[in-house]
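Pinned message: reference record for Methyltransferase domain-containing protein
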Amino acid sequence: MTTFKEDKTSTGNGVGKLSIAEILEAVVGEDIPVRFSAYDGSSTGAQDAKYGLDLKSPRGTTYLVTAPGDLGMARAYVSGDLEATGVHPGDPYEILRVLGDQLHFSRPSAKELAAITRSLGWELLKPVAPPPQEHLPRWRRFAEGLRHSKTRDAEAIHHHYDVSNAFYEKVLGPSMTYTCAAYESPDQSLEDAQDNKYRLVFEKLNLKPGDRLLDIGCGWGGMVRYAARHGVKAIGATLSAEQAAWAQKAIADEGLSELAEVRHSDYRDITETGFDAVSSIGLTEHIGVHNYPAYFEFIKGKLREGGLLLNHCITRPDNKHNARAGGFIDRYVFPDGELTGSGRIITEIQDVGLEVRHEENLREHYALTLAGWCRNLVDNWDACVAEVGEGTARVWGLYMAGSRLGFERNGIQLHQVLAVKTSPKGDAGVPLRPWWKA
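Predicted structure (tokens):
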């Protein structure tokens, strides 16, 4: 902890005005694992450290002190008021790893807090407008409708997915797949791993030519097109207008229009039934935990007897924590997103009467996937910034690098759960042992 010194600027209690670097030391101690410098000329931390942080403006200080934690850091970083040195803004993974491993916050004493407040001055403690990339806080979203209503879900999806198809093409690569890939080895290419993921889902669902598939939250139609290439009639639904337009063009360009369709539609508006299989790849995170019973009941109603469900989603490593996302994720990435453990998801699937046959955790695969997306963002940084602006590109680099670290450290997971709609007599109509190549 920094030592407060007496000087001529003392306000009467023996404590003088602190520099920004001294304030940081008061909060995290003097053993800071990165170089830190601030606009007031002060600095601290290991001067020979590979990575650094440069606080460039008073506004950045205001962001940090008025929204402590990941939200304040994100605001300062996205706005460009806080620069990370030694890393590319498209992939700040390494500095996040070092900070996560070695930076430990402590609670300043009342005397220290008073000194920090006087040193900053009241002007820097007044909240200022956040970067334009930030979504409204939860309590101000009621104008968009009740949480997880159709209108509010549509707005949340629009915020994240209707950024720019050209931007996503640069970041996601040719597959245009924004979900966890399935790697056969760590050095497999991102594109091959995404194709392998679709192959895995297709085989788990035991699909055959002539079968019917419903893909809920289909994104740019990757699963729909994969199924159609293998003779399956597939319908996809997405709340993103840009995704639907891109997917329909891709379907036409591949000559798959007789078998495949992607609709700009809420999944709840799909009227067809009797599907042989339903895939839900990366949508459950947007549903809301309290809506799981209705969601899985809806899916059950879409399946024929013997039909299969494959639910693929990000999960927490336990079933105890609050489902809501943290400040940065909720405001910048997935408004209203919620995560829970795989046990809760399996329970809700079982409670609507579907039989769970298999589940597996692919969290290491998602870390590899995110690393691949970050490489794409770095390689295409100038084009991405030209397309969406530097602030939005920074959001994506920060989000993907931080998420990679979360999957590596088992802070979040990715589970696939396979279930079947049995007959009234319990017939499942599936082979005795797993029928797919792992």
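Pinned by admin. Summary line: The chain has two domains: 20-125, 150-420.
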